[in-house]
Amino acid sequence: MFVLLVLALLVGLVIARLRGGTLDALGRVRVRLGWLAAVIVLALVVAVVAPRLQTVGWLVAAVLAAILSAANRRIPGLFLLFIGLALNTAAIGANHGRMPVSTAAISSAGIDRADVARSDHYVLADHDTRLRYLGDVIAFPFWGAPAALSAGDVLIASGIGLFAGLAPVRASRTLRARREARDRRRGRRQAQAAGDADVGPDAGSAAGRAGRWPVAALPAGPAAGVTPTPRRGTMAADVSDERHSGDDSERRSRHGEEEA
């Protein structure tokens, strides 16, 4: 089973890398109650090392996997991990702390039947075996490490492979989207700052001051290019003056002629 788990992890990471995922993004995946994963591994190790605690170890691992899966429903693969642990726990608990093994499966995988019979963790399946279809009934003739797998083992490996294949991709896309959004906000702020610098504070204040001046306060007269309008009576006075000056000149000319 260990070989299957390693293969599932490697295949998942390769697929994730081809789809744009990175290990750095995988490390940024937030897992709630992540310390439960370490406790699950510890419980499985205890189940392997201490045959008398095998059922207890698998049961503890299954319960903790259920809690971890419920706390991280959006993370792919954890639910399959929990189902696989639960199926293996059921098979082991129903057969007095031992996993039932199919004789046909070990024969196809190339495993010696005597080695299974002497093991403290496995029992050869027969007609009296409970939940025998949940036992190790799938042959896995891997070179150098043949094994017989159960349905729970396949689900556990599938959960690990699914996590390794999808989690880095989703995390990379999330980080990329956040980076692009941050760059867009920074670009808008820079454009706004550049626009404020082009307008300038003096231009805006001067325009505002010019718009606030009242019309009556504007200077009048020739200096402002405005021709003053003559008051009533001015034109009449000028005309009368011209008439008086004209009469005086005519009188002088007549007086001169008389003197001559």
User: Could you tell me the number of beta strands?
Assistant: 4
Query: If you compute it from the alpha carbons, what radius of gyration comes out, rounded to the nearest whole angstrom?
Result: 49 Å
Number of helices: 10
**Parts with pLDDT < 50 across at least 5 consecutive residues:** 213-218, 231-246, 252-260
| Cα distance spanning the termini | 154 Å
Beta percentage is 5-15%
> Share of helix among residues?
55-70%
Description:
The protein is 66% helix and 6% strand. By secondary structure, it is mainly alpha-helical. Residues 213-218, 231-246 and 252-260 have low confidence and may be disordered. It is built from ten helices and four strands; from the N terminus they run αααααβααβββααα. The chain has a domain at 2-178. The chain has helices at 2-18, 23-27, 35-49, 54-71, 78-94, 103-109, 113-118, 151-199, 201-212, 234-259, and strands spanning 99-101, 122-124, 136-140, 147-150. The strands form two sheets. The protein has a two-stranded parallel sheet.
